[in-house]
Specification:
alpha+beta, globular, 14 helices, seven-stranded mixed beta sheet, 432 residues, 28% strand, binds glycyl-adenosine-5'-phosphate
Length: 432
């Protein structure tokens, strides 16, 4: 199976089994927007919960935030997004397809990749979505949907300082939607118009930036490995000065190897004191940290690890997808699996079996996400659960009625063993 075939199989599995649907599909879809289905939303939530636990709850130096999508438009002037959040747009003179010139350059293309037509001169195009607040649609009512969650953190810097008096270094983290009017989107959920970011702004003293940068790079990679993204499919690449965002003095991308090349999974940037200084200038408010020991006041510098939820989802799905004979298995880490266990009565038309299985199911689903299945034969049910990554299948059979034991079957080894009903939850909980 080539990596392109695998990609296509994962896209089709996502649709078929309720992970990801094209958005507004009954209207022919809406390009580069997707909806996460019943199983996809479970996986998405697990990714975010694991991130939040690792980077916020388990640390003493990071504070959480949930800022609004719409911010005062001055925020985007101060941040430089109104002037600089632009990409060079070119259009094919023949088929009128539009591209980002910098992406074409990276691929070594000078003409239209679709029809080889010649391209127009590049025009700079701002990637922020505009909207209007209030009943009039004039320049004074323009607002923007945030293209990154980070700015809500910067504008709340003093609020968090005043409420918690943190000691530097400290971070403020947020998970939320961001919106970008991407010129060339596509490749399924890799590049979409709206997406969720898991971002952390880490406030430091300037002299420590290189050390902190290395630490955060390590933590980002570890997060990816812990979710089951393989080391072989990741690499770290530093941005050239031309690629770097206007606010950054150093950026590295953690890139994922797709069939269409190495592409950004996560970004890590040293934003210097650019953002706090800009907001201070535009708002007229001092955004300073006061060192209690020396009473010296200064503008902290910032290291920013930024990670996309959708891209994590896609990398996890691709690296979990395995074909084993005619069995399709999603070898998701149990902590990510949409269902941790499935419960089956051996047959659906024996009342005593169904009743017992229901008791087991009702008990387990109070503790973790559990699914009931009584369709078809046991073999088909196993196949069906393997394909969505359920780590354990529990069958209630005639022996259960005699001795309160069940069979529990492992997704990856396909081995079954008998355990007591009483022991099931501990067995499953130990793996998640
Ligand atoms: N605050 C810094 C920032 O926004 P970025 O590299 O532009 O940096 C951060 O975006 C992360 O957000 C990326 O590494 C990626 O995971 C995700 N991301 C960015 N644009 C995306 C898009 N159009 N679709 C899906 N995810 C995207």
């Amino acid at each position: 199976m080539t990596s392109q075939e695998k990609f296509e199989k994962v896209v089709s599995l996502c649709k078929r089994r309720g992970f990801v649907y094209p958005s507004s599909e009954i209207y022919g879809g809406f390009a580069n927007t997707y909806d996460y289905g019943p199983l996809g939303v479970q996986l998405l939530r697990s990714i975010k919960e694991i991130w939040w636990k690792k980077f916020v709850e388990d640390r003493e130096d990071v504070y959480g935030l949930d800022g609004s999508v719409l911010l005062n438009p001055k925020v985007w002037q101060a941040s430089g997004h109104v002037d600089n959040f632009t990409d060079p747009l070119v259009e094919c003179k023949k088929c009128h397809k539009r591209y980002r010139q910098d992406f074409l350059e990276q691929e070594g293309e000078t003409n239209c990749p679709e029809c080889a037509g010649s391209l127009t001169e590049p025009k700079m195009f701002n990637g922020m979505f505009k909207t209007f607040v209030g009943p009039t649609e004039d320049t004074s009512s323009v607002a923007y949907l945030r293209p990154e969650t980070a700015q809500a953190i910067f504008v709340n810097f003093s609020n968090v300082l005043n409420s918690f008096s943190p000691k530097i270094p400290f971070g403020i983290a947020q998970i939320g939607k961001a919106f970008r009017n991407e010129i060339t989107a596509g490749n399924f959920i890799h590049r979409t118009l709206e997406f969720e970011q898991m971002e952390l702004e880490y406030f430091i003293e300037e002299g420590n930036w290189e050390k902190e940068f290395e630490k955060w790079l390590f933590d980002m990679l570890k997060f990816a490995y812990d979710l089951g993204i393989s080391k072989e499919s990741l690499r770290v690449r530093e941005h050239t000065s031309k690629e770097r965002s206007h606010y950054s003095e150093k950026t590295v991308d953690v890139e994922y190897m797709y069939y269409f090349g190495w592409k950004e999974l996560y970004g890590l940037a040293y934003r210097t004191d650019f953002d706090l200084k800009q907001h201070s200038k535009f708002s007229g408010k001092k955004l300073l940290y006061r060192n209690n020991e020396t009473t010296e006041k200064f503008t902290p510098h910032i290291i920013e690890p930024s990670m996309g939820v959708g891209r994590t989802f896609l990398a996890v799905m691709l690296d979990s997808y395995v074909e084993d004979g005619d069995r399709i298995v999603l070898k998701l880490k149990p902590s990510l699996a949409p269902y941790k266990a499935a419960v089956f009565p051996l047959v659906r038309n024996k009342e005593e079996l169904v009743k017992k299985a229901r008791e087991v199911f009702d008990g387990l689903k109070l503790q973790f996400s559990t699914v009931w299945d009584d369709r078809g034969n046991i073999g088909k049910r196993y196949y069906s659960q393997d394909e969505i990554g359920t780590p354990y299948c529990i069958t209630i059979d005639y022996q259960t009625l005699k001795d309160n034991t069940v069979t529990i079957r492992d997704r990856d080894t396909t081995k079954q063993k008998r355990i007591k009903i009483f022991d099931i939850s501990l067995f499953v909980l130990k793996s998640i």
